[in-house]
Design a protein that fits this description.
- The protein is of the alpha/beta class.
- About 30% of the residues lie in helices and about 30% in strands.
- It has an eight-stranded mixed β-sheet with strand order 5-4-3-6-1-7-10-9, with helices on both faces. A two-stranded antiparallel ribbon has the order 2-8.
- Helix 2 packs across helix 3.
Length: about 190
């Protein structure tokens, strides 16, 4: 069975964005881009909330085509164009969306159907609202966290309104030169 892995940059105090959604504090350099690129290259499905999907869709389809495109932009743009995208949204419709599935109701049933299909792990990128909804329904199987060396003090938390403990097993950690620490956990069911 496929697993849903939540991929997030977080602050040391557990926030995924500032109080107004700002992410200018996230450290990402070529070392991180290469590392993440190698891991996601194996993936064939990405999962987003509406806001993150619209942000990704407005940039990545053409990011690699620009004359000044970086190695990361070229590689991620190619990956983004071929990966199947699943979007959790109550307001979007499926019309004219290439390689994209919109889930607007019965989230648990539809996510579990996707998890039963052949393929690689499903990567949930950012999308704090979608992540919170999936946590509440016990649908996330792992957390791939990039802890940034900053304390925000306030913002959008990764974990909020948790009803039951979520036990995790640490798979691995890695320290990057920029001070970011990767922590890779699997949910212990």
């Amino acid at each position: 069975m496929r697993k849903i892995i939540s991929f997030m940059h977080i602050s040391l105090d557990g926030f995924v964005a500032g109080p107004n959604g700002e992410m200018d504090w996230i450290k990402a350099d070529q070392e991180i881009f290469d590392y993440v690129g190698n891991r996601i290259a194996e993936g064939d499905t990405s999962l987003y909330g509406r806001v993150t999907y619209q942000m990704m869709e407005s940039y990545w389809p053409t990011a690699g085509d620009k004359p000044t495109a970086t190695k990361h932009e070229i590689e991620h743009s190619k990956w983004y164009s071929k990966v199947h995208k699943v979007v959790l949204s109550k307001t979007m419709e499926n019309s004219d969306l290439t390689n994209t599935t919109i889930i607007s109701s019965n989230i648990a049933d539809k996510i579990n159907e996707i998890k039963q299909q052949a393929g690689e792990d499903i990567l949930l990128f950012g999308s704090p609202t979608a992540t919170h909804a999936l946590i509440q329904q016990n649908l996330i199987d792992g957390y791939w966290l990039f802890v940034n060396p900053i304390i925000l003090g306030e913002g959008i938390p990764l974990f909020t309104d948790i009803k039951n403990k979520i036990k995790l097993n640490l798979l691995n950690t890695r320290q990057f030169a920029c001070g970011v620490i990767e922590m890779n956990y699997v949910v212990n069911r």
